[in-house]
Write a structure and sequence with these properties.
Layout (H helix, E strand, L loop, with lengths): L1 E5 L2 E5 L6 H9 L4 H10 L5 E5 L5 H7 L5 E6 L2 H14 L4 E5 L2 E2 L5 E6 L17 E6 L1 E2 H8 L3 E4 L5 H7 L7 E5 L2 H18 L3 E2 L8 E5 L9 H6 L1
GO molecular function: rRNA (adenine-N6,N6-)-dimethyltransferase activity
Protein name: FkbM family methyltransferase
Pfam family, one: Methyltransf_21
Length: 234
């Protein structure tokens, strides 16, 4: 087993535990690089964060490194969740609870999850491409979870399932949503629907934490001083 340093996170992993493409991305720093650069703009000291789509726990660990933050993270693929738990155990100080499961809008229901060799392509959608196998899971109600755990930040990278969640869920008490958009699955019309759904919840596109498909929606926090670092990055 080799320990890779990925955006400051120690990742203990064997090359045969992930696909060659993911192994290469982990080694050359390309793995979730955009998310890693932006996540600190979405999460603040003392936040209570719900993360959907933990992957192998790299972004989870970056979030958990922020002072006084607590994280509840979900990963649908049981094999990937095992790798994520290893990374979390290596990097986090007991402030992360990782679950193998799925959250969705509405009452619990059976969900079929399609596992792919490149786990970052695994999703609820069979039409996304060839898959290696299927996992049957019972979803949990995201709004109920948010209320129970007093979540105020939602982070998502769930390969297209964000569209339905953001259209149907209330997201009570959520102040910021950071997600990766997947226009190849729902087109520009889907992105428009997400923006409308966010607007109905009082959440506005926030360029301070957005770059390309990785976008931040925030409650309006009023005027702010000019931030040269953000202006340069955007």
């Amino acid at each position: 087993m080799k320990t890779l340093n990925v955006h400051g996170v120690e990742v203990p992993l064997c090359s045969n535990e992930v696909s060659p493409e993911i192994w290469a991305a982990l080694q050359n720093g390309r793995y979730e690089a955009n998310e890693a650069r932006r996540i600190a703009r979405a999460v603040r000291r003392g936040d209570r964060v719900l993360e959907l789509g933990a992957g192998i726990g790299v972004i989870t660990s970056i979030i958990a490194s922020i002072e006084s933050v607590r994280v509840w993270s979900f990963e649908a693929d049981p094999r990937t969740a095992c790798l994520a738990q290893r990374v979390i155990d290596q990097n986090c100080a007991g402030n992360v609870i990782l679950s193998n499961g799925i959250l969705a809008a509405g009452p619990s229901a059976k969900v079929t999850f399609y596992r792919r060799a490149d786990f970052w392509m695994s999703s609820k959608f069979p039409e996304q491409g060839p898959y290696e196998g299927k996992v049957e899971l019972m979803s949990l109600d995201i709004d109920e979870f948010i209320e129970t755990h007093r979540i105020n930040v939602l982070v998502m990278d769930i390969e297209g399932a964000e569209l339905e969640i953001l259209q149907r869920a209330r997201l009570p008490g959520v102040e910021r949503v950071f997600l990766e958009l997947h226009d190849h699955l729902y087109g520009l019309s889907g992105i428009q629907e997400i923006t409308r759904a966010m607007s109905r919840k009082g959440l506005i596109y926030d360029p301070r934490g957005s770059s390309g498909p990785c976008v931040l929606y925030s409650l309006d926090d009023g005027e702010r001083e000019f931030d040269a670092e953000v202006a340069h990055a955007v």
